[in-house]
């Protein structure tokens, strides 16, 4: 997605050869127009999949997920990372190893928001090694629901997540595919064209 790649090149900060900071438009300050374009793009790529619900993870997945939900006209659920006094319902829980914090935590969604007949699109801001996406898959499968696709805003293709999700047979769509972050430079995967 050209507008997203341009934004990454102009406003992204390469923190190391493993980590990209995008808090100018996605992870802290949010660019609503770009999020809207992202929602349209996800909707375009998954519109044939019969999606009934979107599941993401707080906090940074929420903005792109809501925009995709608006376009696809379906509800959006975000998995909670923190205990909350208001989250007292029966919960599906899964453990996830955080790439950015390097710690394990538990994420949860309320059983009342997801049913066995749901066809779910997972959306997240980044794909690194695939732990967050697979924890969301686990929550959805505990409900007996179907994972129809995984939409990622920024995939770091040099890490293991994409290959893992492909091998498990998921339909993955990433709007920007980062090939490398070496020497402070972002380079993108260029799809083969005939
Ligand atoms: P994974 O679970 O695929 O290893 O990592 C994905 C999760 O870690 C995402 O939910 C995202 O929040 C975070 N993450 C992974 N890589 C990066 C990165 O380079 N920059 C930022 N800001 N977050 C990342």
TrEMBL record:
Record InterPro entries:
PRTase-like, PRTase_dom, Pur/Pyrimidine_PRTase, Xanthine_PRibTrfase
| Positions that bind xanthine | 20, 27, 156
Which annotated residues bind 5-phospho-alpha-D-ribose 1-diphosphate?
128-132
Please give one Gene Ontology molecular function term for this protein. xanthine phosphoribosyltransferase activity
Assigned EC number: 2.4.2.22
Instruction: Name the CDD domains for this protein.
Output: PRTases_typeI
GO CC term, one of those recorded:
cytoplasm
Annotated localization: Cytoplasm
According to UniProt, this protein's pathway is:
Purine metabolism; XMP biosynthesis via salvage pathway; XMP from xanthine: step 1/1
Sorted keywords for this record are: Cytoplasm, Glycosyltransferase, Purine salvage, Transferase
Primary site of residence: cytoplasm
EC main class here is transferase
Q: Which residues form the Phosphoribosyltransferase domain?
A: 51-157
Reaction(s) the record says it catalyses: XMP + diphosphate = xanthine + 5-phospho-alpha-D-ribose 1-diphosphate
Name its GO BP terms in alphabetical order: purine ribonucleoside salvage; xanthine metabolic process; XMP salvage
Q: What does this chain do? A: Converts the preformed base xanthine, a product of nucleic acid breakdown, to xanthosine 5'-monophosphate (XMP), so it can be reused for RNA or DNA synthesis.
The text of the family note is: Belongs to the purine/pyrimidine phosphoribosyltransferase family. Xpt subfamily.
- Give the quaternary structure: Homodimer.
Record-given protein name = Xanthine phosphoribosyltransferase
Native species of this protein?
Acinetobacter qingfengensis
């Amino acid at each position: 997605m050209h507008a997203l790649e341009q934004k990454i090149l102009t406003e992204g900060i390469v923190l190391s050869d493993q980590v990209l900071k995008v808090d100018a438009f996605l992870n802290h300050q949010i660019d609503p127009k770009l999020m809207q374009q992202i929602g349209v793009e996800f909707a375009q790529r998954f519109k044939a999949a019969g999606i009934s619900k979107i599941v993401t993870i707080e906090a940074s997945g929420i903005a792109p997920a809501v925009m995709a939900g608006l376009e696809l006209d379906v509800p959006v659920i975000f998995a909670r990372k923190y205990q909350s006094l208001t989250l007292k319902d029966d919960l599906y829980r899964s453990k996830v190893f955080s790439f950015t914090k390097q710690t394990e935590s538990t994420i949860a969604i309320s059983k009342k928001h997801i049913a066995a007949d749901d066809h779910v699109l997972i959306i997240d801001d980044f794909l690194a090694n695939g732990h967050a996406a697979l924890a969301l898959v686990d929550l959805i499968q505990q409900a007996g629901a179907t994972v129809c696709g995984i939409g990622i805003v920024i995939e770091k293709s040099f890490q293991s997540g994409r290959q893992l999700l492909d091998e498990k047979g998921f339909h993955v769509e990433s709007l920007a595919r980062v090939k490398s972050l070496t020497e402070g430079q972002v380079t993108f995967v260029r799809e083969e064209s005939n």
